[in-house]
Design a protein that fits this description.
Elements (H helix, E strand, L loop, with lengths): L4 E5 L5 E6 L12 H14 L14 H14 L3 E5 L2 H12 L5 E5 L4 H10 L2 E5 L4 H9 L6 E6 L11 H10 L3 E5 L14 H4 L8 E5 L9 E5 L1 H10 L1 H4 L6 H16 L2 H19 L11 E4 L5 H6 L2 E2 L1 E3 L10 E5 L6 H17 L4
Parallel strand pairs: 2-11, 4-5, 4-6, 6-7, 7-8
Antiparallel strand pairs: 1-2, 3-9, 8-9, 10-13, 12-13
Helix pairs in contact: 1-10, 2-10, 3-4, 3-8, 11-13
The protein binds 4'-deoxy-4'-aminopyridoxal-5'-phosphate.
Length: 361
């Protein structure tokens, strides 16, 4: 596979290779020979697009195979694919909830979860970030019978994990449904990449597993997995599935092959874990605060280093408004399986040099 180096066009118009620390494609599978070959073959056989939503002419055998593979992976009865992670959340939440229901959202949930909640017409009750005690207070006072607790699994701006075991306990005690969007956790966190709920041993307690193909699998698309009665209902009532054209078959083929590669080549997950542990340790050893990251997303709570890092040949993203509050602007460093120890050490050294110059460490 290609090294996590990218060519970036700089403002003066020249293209230069840079160390990539800003990609969500944690496993670099978008360059894996098996994935490219599967996508190429499907492209030749099925053409460049479906031309239809899934329930018209837009479902191929590979879409079905992918849904069955997802259901097997999550140990659920069924799964449903969406053309994008963002739109899938709109469809699932507005499909399940309606006016009169209450949706309990961690305050740092991804925008698409809040947007889906708004679209549903249900009442939205945000609870304090990572504070199940606050959620419980809200649940205690809730008189509505339709209740959904929804949380990111891995929080996308800080790399921390939701307390899924506590959320699962509360959903049982207060008779709610639990939906976990583990876009950044699936195929990256936990044994076999089964995600945050699995890491905490409560995979079976989650009613709706939600994820995307756009992070560790390096492609595009969203999905949900759960009981057949819920998924079959959503096939018709998640409007972003029913009324939107299906994922191209070539993309479904690439995603399917990526899932198989992760299963059959465990070194990808092992390397990712080794790299993220190493990089976080190197940053903390140098005095940087990396919040509570336990994933391949490692934040550093200073945004002003981004342009200096860019000048030093390191591509990073910055988390700023509207993704986080302007006062909590941060560098968002993404570790990949294919980074070398030397590359990560080089980045940590550069950060240290710049951090010292700014007197922030
Ligand atoms: N949910 C979460 C938790 C995310 O982090 C993201 C992407 N940042 C999405 C949904 C949307 O996924 P996509 O980019 O595939 O539309």
């Amino acid at each position: 596979g290609v090294k996590p180096v990218t060519r970036v066009r700089t403002p003066d118009g020249t293209a230069r290779p840079m160390l990539m620390l800003g990609s969500n494609s944690f496993l670099n599978l978008n360059y894996h020979p098996r994935v490219l070959e599967a996508e190429r073959r499907a492209l030749e056989r099925y053409g460049a697009g479906c031309g239809s939503p899934p329930l018209y002419a837009g479902t191929s055998n590979l879409h079905r195979e992918l849904e069955m593979e997802l259901a097997r992976f999550f140990g659920t009865e069924s799964a449903l694919i969406f053309p994008a992670g963002y739109s899938g959340n709109l469809g699932v939440i507005s499909g399940i909830c309606r006016p009169g229901d209450v949706i309990f959202c961690d305050a740092s949930n991804h925008a698409s979860l809040f947007d889906g909640a708004r679209l549903s017409g249900a009442e939205i009750k945000p609870y304090l970030h990572l504070r199940p005690d606050h959620l419980e207070r809200e649940l205690k006072h809730c008189t509505a019978s339709g209740r959904l607790i929804v949380s990111d699994g891995v929080f996308s701006m800080e790399g921390s994990l939701a307390p899924v075991a506590e959320l699962a306990e509360l959903k049982e005690r207060y008779n709610a449904l639990l939906m976990i969007d583990d876009a950044h956790g699936f195929w990256a966190v936990g044994e076999k990449g089964l995600g945050t709920a699995s890491l905490f041993g409560v995979r079976d307690k989650v009613d709706i597993h939600y994820g995307t193909f756009s992070k560790a699998l390096g492609s595009v698309g969203g999905f949900c997995a759960g009981r057949s009665e819920v998924i079959d209902y959503l096939r018709y009532y998640a409007r972003s599935a029913f009324f939107s054209s299906a994922l191209p078959v070539s993309v479904a083929a690439a995603v399917l092959e990526s899932i198989r590669v992760v299963r059959e080549e465990p070194e990808h997950l092992a390397n990712l874990k080794r790299n993220r542990d190493f990089f976080q340790h190197e940053l903390e050893r140098r005095g940087f605060n990396t919040l509570n990251s336990r994933s391949a997303i490692i934040p550093v709570l200073i945004g002003q280093l981004q342009m200096s890092l860019f000048a030093a040949g390191i591509f990073t993203n910055i988390g700023t408004t509207p993704a986080v509050n302007a006062s909590k602007c941060r560098l968002r460093l993404n570790v990949m399986t294919t980074h070398t120890t030397e590359q990560l050490a080089f980045a940590a050294d550069k950060l240290e040099e710049l951090g010292k110059k700014l007197e922030i460490i």
